[in-house]
Batch of 3 targets.
Target 1
Amino acid sequence: MKIIRKIYTFYGLIVFLGIMLMIFPFFWLYIRFKSLERYAYELYQFWGTSLFWLIGMPINKVYKGKLQKDKQYLFVPNHSSYLDIPAVGGGPFAMLFLGKIELVKIPVFGYIYKKLNIIVDRKNPRSRKKAMDDCRESLDRGYNLAIFPEGTISKQSPELLPFKDGAFLLAIEKGIPIVPVTLPYNWKILPGHHGDFTLRWHKNMVVYHEPIHTNDLTLKDIEKLKIQVHNVIQEEMYARNNMAFHVEPESKK
């Protein structure tokens, strides 16, 4: 089984880099000319979808709420794997990601990711502030945005890490609906922690929950909103992995 997994992992890596190299000239062109920039995000969707199809794990998209193509959203997914970005990026909406600076080091992908998304060095206060300002500017320009509120890959999946404030502050400031997104199985497919980068086949799924409107909320509601979204995603994670879910008291969040 270990040999099969290694072969499958190697195949997955070849597919990952192969698609990137194939579409790189188009990315370069779209990035170079601002008037074509939006097409780059659609190409990003193609990359994410194609990746999972070619490794034999097409994503089943489950919608628990109605998402409208002409609306702007802030997507908030759980984070348990390096596959989370293509899984969400290959979804029905073109979007920017707020991502950590370490991803820039990945060959080919890192260049594209840096040019298309908002990069943050979590250890640098100035970088964190600039990233938030860039997020505000992107939302003002009408883009959809995806932020992993855990801030890093969880090492305790399917249990979520505590959520950070950033995504919720932005949503309330701009009055943009938050869409909780559950990625229930990526932690089983490619864990991404403890040095384990072995690809495992598993059915795949992305669950888009009912949008949560923020028009009537103020910054005093950040903690309440965080808990609400955390519980929505955590309950789905447990349900899909056949585990019991218990809502924690607010004082523990």
Target 2
Amino acid sequence: MLKKLVLTFISIVLAFQVSAAQVDKTQPYEMMKQVSDRTFNRLKAEQPKIQQNPDHLKTIVEEELMPYVNDKYAALKLLGTHLKGADRKDVNVFIGSFREYLIASYAQVLTQYTDQDIVFGPEPALDPSKTITGVKVEIVDAPRPNIKLEFKLRKDKRSGEWQAFDMIAEGVSLISSKQSEWSGKLRQEGILAVAQDLKELAAKPIRFESKE
């Protein structure tokens, strides 16, 4: 189920990359809608290259997704209470490893890309005093049941631009699920031990798997 949710997360947020001159990144809802066609077209166009070299998906993720994902903010939220008393250098190592892990994880899930249709919910009203907003979408993946999700975005106070950092599905956030998964090792072995695990996971080659 988590793999499915990550795939849909990628499918939406990966759609963020397009020329800055063409997209107003201060309007998160319109930004997501405007760039989706272009990014999905790239995935379709590069399928032969991807089939020949699945690791090319890491390049696509690096170039198209990561500039629009606030991986640092997500990593710090994931660490949560483990930040208290932590060495800043260790935290920076974790942030870097977490970024590498995200790139590899998203690339791996994209091997299951099947051109899902995306239906956006109503545009949310933006409160100028708030730095967090959500955009609801429905993933049409027939013959499977549709998937209803909400993507969380955070506004940079200085630039006014938005970046995605989390996804909510069935009441559970992606960050929260990873907090539960890694909290034990973070508590027992520390930040650097988890960072090393993430780095090793990120180094694994991308492989095609049978679709669920």
Target 3
Amino acid sequence: MRTIDHVYIDGQFVIPHGTEISPLYNPATEEVIGRVRLADETDAHAAVAAAKRAFATFSRTSKEERIALLHRLSASFTERLDDLKAAMTEEYGAVRGIVDGLIPLAPGMFDAAAKLLEDYEFTRTRGTNTIVMEPLGVAAVITPWNLSTVFIAQKLAGAIAAGTTVVVKPSEISAIQTQVLTEAIDAADLPPGVVNIVTGRGNVVGNVLTSHPDIAKVGFTGSTAVGQQIMRNAAETFKRLTLELGGKGPSILLDDADLASAVPAALASGFLNNGQTCFAGTRILAPRSRLDEVVEAIGKAMPAFRVGDPTDPATAVGPVVSQQQFDRVQHYIRLGQEEGAQLLTGGPGRPEGLAKGWYVRPTVFTGVTNEMRVAREEIFGPVLVVIPFEDDDEAVSIANDTPYGLQAQVFSSDTERARGVARQVQAGTVLINRIFADDEAPFGGIKQSGIGREHHTYGLEAYLEPRAISE
């Protein structure tokens, strides 16, 4: 049984002022595996004060100093990769394929930011103007429970490269992952106050950070509803925002797609991370002329998405993160049936042979229209829908008929045709015959999927403000 009873403020592990104790669970067994003492408003204010003090010096550091710091962070994270992977599996239920494929991205983000800095021009001349890209102030970073390490590293890399100090508020249900990550940050020997980490509830610590007058920027990954609240909190002091929010991404199978490869890829996108991924392709758009083939291909591909113990290398889909999330997903599966959708695979309840753990049967609905709630609302679990279309124009229309716009996939044997469709799809990222973008692509959404972009230059400049000096 782990007890996590410290937060990280001003370069020190300190006992929080907050006294609330929250349990930590293993979603594969439903057992309590630890307890975390949560920060409160007093801790949040102390973390902001530490970051503000550190900003006065850190914002004036040279590129070389920040590059060295970023490389130290990369090395420190690399040393703890096995611990980070183990924590994510135990606390979150992530399967081996996910932790082995995604957790190593975290140290790479620091190295990529360091490389970007080498040639980045913070001072530029435009006519008679000197344009100075300056760190905009103390940033608050708020991250969810899925892919916690990657999201935190992603935002820290851009902020530190920019010369910005940070207060991180991770999810309270990812506290074991946060503990390992914090120890890695501490081992990198950053100046005190550059990174502060306070685990607490969103309606407590999060509200302080998103309304605090000394916070200039908020970087958030999470639900659209929380993003809306952050915008309201930030409006009073005109904070800069990067919000990466929910999604209901389409995987568009054009009528010339190679279904033998496209269907397994579309399912992999939808079931990624146990179905708990904001950029998942949860709507499979299939040509009506080949609908029977698509349905048959899904049936053939489903055995590869084995559900079970996340520590077993053969497992492709693990449990969802909590009882609350399990109940939410079950609600949507029943709702889909009530709406008249037909179950192709899966359905309510746990998979056969799994009486314990928050396991969901990977579910695919057919007979779905884009007006159904299971086609419009983010479920955040392994539940996909198949929606037919007549031609490319209708595919684009259905793809865009959503309040979200984070990521989409287009599958076709004709790359030029796929590009033409991709240019019409309203999403921050549109992938052609693949389900992951490379690290230099900007990442973020449009419509209710968010504001701003992360990764590479976009992630750096999210923490910078241009200032013009004219002569």
